[in-house]
Design brief:
The structure holds two protein chains of two kinds. Chain A is mainly β. Chain A has one domain. Chain A has three helices and 22 strands. In chain A, the strands form two sheets. In chain A, strands 3, 4, 7, 10, 12, 14, 16, 18, 20 and 21 form a ten-stranded mixed beta sheet that branches. In chain A, a hairpin with a 6-residue loop joins strand 3 (about 40-45) and strand 4 (about 55). Chain B has helices at about 45-50, 75-80, 95-105, 110-120, 125, 140-150, 170-185, 195-200, 220-240, and strands at about 1-10, 15-30, 35, 60-65, 65-70, 80-85, 155-160, 190, 205-210, 210-215. In chain B, the strands form two sheets. A six-stranded mixed beta sheet of chain B has the order 6-7-8-3-9-10, sandwiched between helices. Chain B has a four-stranded antiparallel beta sheet with strand order 2-1-4-5, with helices on one face. In chain B, helix 7 links the parallel strand 7 (about 155-160) and strand 8 (about 190). In chain B, helix 3 (about 95-105) packs parallel to helix 6 (about 140-150) and helix 4 crosses helix 6. The chains are: A mainly beta, B alpha/beta.
Chain lengths: ~300, ~250
């Protein structure tokens, strides 16, 4: 199937792709497959019981990547998908997920994705999920991703979750279970504007000794948008966790940040930090002394903050 | 080159209006090296901020190269060639040292901006990619601040206490760079400082006390007055022993 100009624009935004990738990939558009490729080490197959795919990475696969972007381009289309990722023992891979919605209609377009990820013993995963919305229609662009990740002994995962403008409503749920010596780093970047709503619930269960997690959330809320962050870390064993939520608030926006830490082991070490505030005046003034106008200075500060 | 005429800066305090700068006249001549000195809270930084446009004069006019710039925005003054290195440079979450140098110089190529860091004694390889945030020490931040001002290539440069937080050896080097810019490229330079060493180097010292220009002159003329102002007046107020300071 050929990619249209809109497809290409969405692909570029969510997966940095300019064309169909060479490696393992699955491109889904409006509920159907556009292009798929498995490789010797990474198998992609359609689920038999419900919509979605299984992505199976063979043990020991090193330095390979999988792109699985989802495009919603049909006006008012509602998509629901279940994907399962099996990251085999000792492998080291990059998964680029992400969803781009183009909605030019008055109806709501929507993609709900449930991702189950298994990071097996000693495996390493980098997972990037970007959300992007465009189109002039008044219909809402809605994305509700749910990610459930299990990390076995000695495994590690880095999740990078990015949504910059364009999505009217999003409710993100992330749940993780970490076994002995497992490591999870979650980096969240969010910018909302107009009347957009975003909510992110994260729960990380540190179930094994010496497990470690770091959750870093940075967000910018502009105009009349609203954001809620609810990251939680629960330590059941001698483990460490760190949660940081940092938001810049602008216009009439509202932000709620509720980091929570719970320790059920005497040697658990958990910390959290949360901050909400406007752009510091001194930062603006400094950049203006370097030649930027006030608006350019705001853009520069936000660009750095959300990088 | 840059002239302040009858400039005042007044702010609203809790109960009454407070005059921070009181009707001052100053004339900076092109190519000269100046120091502004005076006790803490005397208004030195306020004068610099009025020149840069960070504060708006409540009275009087400021002109640069014959043009009235009193109502110009900060970035418009920058484009005319005025630059200011902050006493306490702000930190940025996410912006890298490279970003600041690129904004300041208008040059995108990272290789072309490396030299600015080397000039202030920082290895570009170690710093370009670092965030200009709280992970940098006060001294590092101060050097980066000086580097960004130089990258901005001003004709009229104000350095606000460039020695603050910088170790002595490094400060010698920074001072040499600032002087080189002044001597070789003819940048009119103003150093806000208390350091006797800096005061000995400059062409003219502007002594600011209580928001007014108390005197202008070379070190021989100004130094005894400084001792009077900061030493003797203070002892008077605090009823200290007169013999603690050698008063004039």
């Amino acid at each position: 199937m050929k990619l249209t100009a809109i497809d290409k624009k969405l692909l570029e935004e969510v997966a940095d792709l300019h064309t169909v990738p060479q490696g393992a990939h699955n491109i889904r558009r409006d509920g159907g497959g556009v292009s798929r490729r498995s490789t010797d080490n990474i198998e992609i197959k359609t689920k038999e019981d419900k919509p979605g795919i299984d992505i199976i990475v063979k043990p020991g696969t090193i330095n390979e990547s999988v792109h699985i972007p989802v495009l919603v381009t049909k006006d008012g289309f509602k998509d629901m998908v279940y994907n399962t990722f099996e990251i085999g023992e000792g492998s080291d891979v990059l998964i680029v997920a992400g969803c781009g919605i183009h909605n030019a209609s008055e109806e709501e377009s929507r993609h709900d994705g449930v991702h189950n990820i298994f990071v097996r013993k000693g495996a390493r995963l980098r997972y990037v999920e970007k959300h992007y919305g465009q189109g002039e229609g008044s219909g809402e662009r809605v994305l509700n991703p749910q990610t459930i990740i299990e990390i076995e002994e000695g495994g590690s995962a880095e999740l990078e979750l990015v949504q910059i403008r364009g999505v009217d409503s999003t409710e993100r749920v992330t749940e993780a279970n970490l076994q002995k010596n497992a490591k999870l780093i979650i980096t969240e970047r969010l910018l909302t504007h107009k009347k957009q709503q975003a909510r992110s619930d994260i729960i990380v269960n540190l179930r094994g000794a010496e497990a470690f997690t770091q959750i870093k959330s940075r967000s910018v809320a502009q105009e009349e948008s609203e954001q809620v962050f609810y990251p939680r870390v629960i330590a059941y064993e001698k483990s460490r966790g760190y949660v940081e939520c940092d938001s810049i608030i602008m216009g009439q926006a509202k932000v709620r940040s509720v980091p929570e830490i719970a320790a059920y082991h005497p040697e658990a070490e958990l910390t959290h930090e949360a901050a909400i505030g406007k752009i510091a005046g001194e930062q603006l003034l400094k950049l203006m002394t370097l030649g930027l106008s006030e608006d350019e200075a705001v853009d520069k500060i936000l660009e750095g903050f959300l990088r | 080159m840059l002239e302040l005429k009858g400039v005042s800066y007044r702010i609203s305090g809790k109960e009454k209006e407070i005059d921070i700068i009181k009707n001052i006249d100053l004339n900076f001549e092109a190519g000269k090296l100046y120091a502004i000195t005076g006790p803490n809270g005397s208004g030195k930084t306020s004068i610099a901020k009025l020149i840069m446009g960070l504060y708006k004069a409540t009275q009087g006019t400021i002109s640069f190269q014959g043009e009235d710039i009193t109502s110009l925005e900060i970035n418009e003054r920058t484009k005319k060639g005025i630059g200011y290195a902050f006493q306490y440079p702000p930190r940025f979450k996410g912006l890298k040292v490279l970003d600041l140098l690129q904004v300041a110089s208008g040059i995108d190529d990272w290789k072309a901006v490396r030299g600015y860091l080397r000039h202030v004694g920082l290895c570009p390889e170690d710093y370009l990619d670092r965030e200009a945030d709280a992970s940098l020490s006060g001294g590092e931040m101060k050097r980066i601040e000086i580097a960004t001002l130089m990258a901005n290539n001003p004709k009229f440069a104000i350095y606000d206490e460039p020695d603050a937080g910088v170790d002595l050896w490094s400060f010698d080097m920074l001072l040499n760079v600032i002087r080189k810019k002044h001597e070789k490229e003819g940048v009119t330079t103003v150093l806000i400082s208390h350091q006797e060493r800096i005061l000995s180097l400059v062409d003219e010292i502007i002594l600011v006390v209580g928001g007014e220009i108390k005197d202008i002159g070379d070190k021989d003329r100004i130094w005894p007055i400084i001792k009077d102002v900061v030493g003797c007046d203070w002892y008077k107020v605090c009823r200290g022993d007169r013999d603690e300071a050698d008063c004039h």
